[in-house]
């Protein structure tokens, strides 16, 4: 996949990065997996890394017919100076595009570009006045972003040539999902290459119930999921059927909002685990004991993308936050407001006159006056036998503190000698 | 006489501080529930947040609970402690109101910028910088201004503790300082000394930087200033709990404080040692020589001493109460304690949970072993035992006892109150043990992602249990904690809304004198000037050279521009 996804998998790596948690925020979003492909494969939607792009309204600005096109870097958008202006633009092949920095601390990193294209983006962070130019010769869709402000939604896209590119029209309501597993089945991913993944995804759409074998003959033993990659419709129940011993199913990645927990306990032949896949997107999973043999699988939920270059979805692409977040905001604003008012309401309540019947009086702090008695307290505790300083030996305390101390030392020793020394270097390694 | 009748002005001050603190507790606690579910992958699809907003929630949780809730409760609680123990009204109540308003304005500013993370289309900036607000993460300037107003407000409130004490001293030149006032003053000496660090960080660096007046700040320097304050702040939370354990809890148990001088020694040790230890949060930071980290580690381990002394004194005072109530045996006396009384059970259980927190604290403090758990979920596991329970649950216990006295209203929903502390402890046991074990297995903290096999972290297998079992315990524990919190708030709101003067309160506000009083302890113990001077010297020894090193290469260098989040 992309550079960011790689760092997302190495949490310690993220922490080493200068931006620290800033990147972790991005990684958190990036890690939420592939999702419904909309225009530009969902690049501008809330599901892509960095979230939704406020200044993309579903239209691609047409600049075909011009030789030189300018894109502003750091225009007012996305809650600050965090936009590319325009966010999506169409140009002819051979057009020279100038990226002009109009605010500070941005860069341009490439998310995706067509095969054979050689745009390098501009990795160093630059300030107002800087310009980066590139001539786009290869036709296709280029997506890019500003790394420091990715989480603000500072993303852009360029369509070179053609007429089927970005903000294409309509499409069905059904989400479409590309069978994009990144490098999951290749040898550069955890556990190495998966022998029984041929590059094809078995299409099981249109069936309500799908079975995946756990421990099928593959990868030099009974170490495969069969089929390794399968496409199903949203709402399909998939049954994982153990056909050999000592496997489990752990989820490596799933779309945002999906709730598949896999099956962590190790099971033997005959066991089944079922899950209904509601959320569209790509799910990847593996068997922990046999990960190193390449026992990995993937499930794609949703229809395959119909068009060619980045077609699909169209204007619906999230131009701002999801409705849920607006609801959340409203609820919270309300809750905060109400909560802030409580103390005020309370002090007014005190002023309302007392009902006569209860015998209560309109109390004013300050004690015994002509209008009211003071508020009586409970009686203080009086022991039957007073225990003075000299009669009292805290033997119970001494024994408890001694036992506590022993536990403390014991647990410390366990953590130090077994957990710490026993596990070799961790963060340093 | 009931506190509200004797000191109506002060009672009102305490009420307002507690009120705002409880609002922060309510919102922060709700966020805690959201986190516990979201990051463990349970009911995730029902939660109306996305992964980026997780950090908004996390910032809100940390700031509202660890900074806002604590500070308001402490300032209010100390108003009560000073007035009650000196047996005189505050010398300048208006000053305290000024401080209170400054804190409220600061909190509101910071809260707006944080909550705006849910609605980035609104124009209030945003502040997903987490409660540690490390540069280069950058928040809206209003967040930093709010933080500064909160701290300055607490300073203003604190000033009147000292002024009131001075007025009392003028009338009582030869008396020993009453224990509670001594504890309040000692805590605030430490607070002034340490919070100066974060004030400098915020006012001199972060505000100008977020306004764009300076283009970069030195992350190492600002982090160092933060942790200069960041460790003592945990004692700022803890010492009020100690105050409650030393002076209120023995009484609730039916006994007396075992030793007044020992309590003073403990607080003096905290004044001396709390601040020169901040580097123990920066064991993994490059750019600080090992030697300085080592000094911090030694000081940290010395801090175990006052906590062990506290364990002894407090338990001995409880045992005294239990024996006066007819308890006997080596541990059988524990049954004679009034576990059904929520004020007692909340504080006593908080102390018990704190003892468990002492263990993980010892692990955190070790310079090498810290690498095992640094930035894993072990760390939240640890501080939910300390600030999250030892402080928070103790304050709930205090509230059950004190709120009737400052409102003149009888405690309502007593059954709910009686079970609440136990629900909290069960929830915390589930959540915290799982967090500790998950941390050992390499599960990171501060992540929105449910990780089912410690992805990307240390490739440890859990010693006992599985990662998904731990995730489930965190989710269930977090839910129970939230339920317990809701019970507490129901009791408080119910009590607050009830009518005053409806008869005899269920609590009694008198506090018996200690078994062994202050009379025969050395007077130097009370001399806070001496202890402050020594504390300053220790701080200079621990921080002088490393700070000089960070400043010598330029105050803003090596610098980093901001990454607004
Ligand atoms: C309803 C009860 C609570 C629940 C369910 C809860 C849950 C959590 C969880 C799950 C985290 C870890 C999030 C992460 O690292 O990704 C967390 C962090 C934290 N909690 Fe709580 N918590 C509760 C109460 C409290 C209380 C009472 C305090 C302090 C007074 C507190 C202070 C903190 C702090 C300071 C953090 C760290 C925030 C950060 O890493 O920036 N929590 N809480
Ligand atoms: Cu940018
Ligand atoms: Cu510390």
From TrEMBL, chain A:
Segments traversing the membrane: 327-349, 395-418
GO CC terms of this entry: membrane; periplasmic space
The protein's required cofactors: Cu cation
Top-level taxon in the UniProt lineage: Archaea
GO molecular function: copper ion binding; electron transfer activity
Main location: membrane
Listed InterPro entries: Amicyanin/Pseudoazurin, BlueCu_1, BlueCu_1_BS, Cupredoxin, Halocyanin, TAT_signal
Signal sequence coordinates: none
Annotated stretches, region: Disordered: 359-378
Residues that bind Cu cation: 247, 287, 290, 295
Sorted UniProt keywords: Copper, Electron transport, Membrane, Metal-binding, Periplasm, Transmembrane, Transmembrane helix, Transport
A Pfam family annotated for this UniProt entry: Copper-bind
Name under which the protein is recorded: Halocyanin HcpB / cbaD domain protein
From TrEMBL, chain B:
A GO molecular-function annotation: oxidoreductase activity
GO biological process entries: aerobic respiration
SUPFAM superfamilies found in the cross-reference section: Cytochrome c oxidase subunit I-like
UniProt KW rRNA-binding keyword: no
Keywords: Electron transport, Heme, Iron, Membrane, Metal-binding, Oxidoreductase, Respiratory chain, Transmembrane, Transmembrane helix, Transport
CDD domains hit by this protein: ba3-like_Oxidase_I
Any single Pfam family the record assigns to this protein: COX1
Alphabetized PANTHER family for the sequence: CYTOCHROME C OXIDASE SUBUNIT 1 (PTHR10422), CYTOCHROME C OXIDASE SUBUNIT I (PTHR10422:SF40)
Protein name per its UniProtKB record: Ba3-type terminal oxidase subunit I
